[in-house]
Here is the input.
Amino acid sequence: MQIHDKHFKPFITAPQIQERVSELGKQISQDYAGKNPMFIVILNGAIVFASDLFRSVSVPCTLETMSAKSYGSQTTSSGTVTVGAHIPNVHGRHVILVEDIVDTGLTLQRVTEVLQQQHPESITIAALLSKPAMHKTKLHLPYICFDIPPAFVVGYGLDYAEHGRNLPDIYVLDEEHTL
Ligand code: 5GP
Here is the structure.
């Protein structure tokens, strides 16, 4: 499969994703019963994951969005995080940040710092993917669908130069076929 100049190979299938997302939804529903959690989707990459996760949560909850960007080049983290102007009011709420992938963790660390200023009751993270070998922060990550090696992935919301987000499966960069 090709997007722009790069080749990608199949990595995690749509049924595998659906199974894990629904397990995570059940776990969150148990852990947050009676807490009326606020899900905050980090745009744009987490939109697809969040729409499936949110529908697999069975307890009363609300939904908000925030934008944060950390990518300087197209396939590596820049380390500089820009948080968008719209910040939901999280005062006294149990917040669940929904992210597509935790790479260095700097994006989530920055978003968490910004939200802490409003004194939420709690903040936790739900992410589709995590690359433990790349983490540069000590984030507590209780809700991860898949830990993956430090390779570049696309699909199910994740892009390469804004393309590939609509793919139902997740693909990984095929180094052998990419110059
Ligand atoms: P972090 O701040 O944790 O280093 O980076 C998180 C952001 O980098 C993610 O929200 C995502 O937008 C982007 N990112 C990190 N790794 C990948 C990857 O393998 N594929 C894609 N498409 N984006 C990634």
